[in-house]
Amino acid sequence: MHRTNKYLALALALIVSAEILAFAWRDSRSPKTALNVQVASPRIVMLHISNIGELAISSESVPYGHLAGRLREIFAIGAEGFLYLFPENDAPAQRIADVIDVVQRLHSENMNIQIRLVTKGSYIQPSVLD
User: Fold this and answer.
1) What is the CA 69 to chain-centroid distance, rounded?
2) Nearest 5°: phi and psi at 114?
3) Is the pTM of the predicted complex or chain greater than 0.85?
4) Counting Cβ atoms within 10 Å, is residue 112 exposed (0-12), middle (13-18) or buried (19+)?
5) Is 106 exposed, middle or buried (0-12, 13-18, 19+ CB in 10 A)?
6) pLDDT by residue (tens digit) across 32-88?
7) Residue 97 confidence (pLDDT) above 90
8) Fold assignment, 3-30+41-129
9) Cα dist. 102→61, 67, 97, 111 in Å?
10) Domain ranges of the chain
């Protein structure tokens, strides 16, 4: 696994852990009742864009032409979710724009997908981890 991919995976793990902790903390502060009610957490999906423009959802390779359909399968209508977009350093800017356009079209179809672009500056730098 490339060093960059390891750091991206670590960044995703940290983001997911932080969101889980936030939901747990919020739940622990809510008043307790006799009724056991659980808050449904939104779906979290990672979309990787390689430096040659190839797409992968988690570890599943997805052709660009099938991206919208695959995201429809993952994010059922009415389900809230987060799509973390991880472009490699040299990923084509047009491919990033195309992916964002696909998500915006899905959003206009009443799919509640929030996109989060994860860039080199938005995750922990390797020197901080050493």
Assistant:
1) 17
2) -105, 130
3) no
4) middle
5) buried
6) 556 665 555 567 889 999 999 999 998 899 999 999 999 988 887 666 788 899 999
7) yes
8) Nucleotidyltransferase; domain 5 (3.30.420)
9) 17, 8, 9, 12
10) 3-30+41-129
Three-state secondary structure call for residue 12 = helix
Which amino acid makes up residue 24? A
Give pLDDT, residue 107. 85
Edge-to-edge strand list for the sheet holding 113-117: 60-62, 55-57, 43-49, 81-87, 113-117
The secondary structure of 85-102, three-state, reads EEECCCCCHHHHHHHHHH
Helix axes 67-74, 93-108, angle to 10 degrees: 50
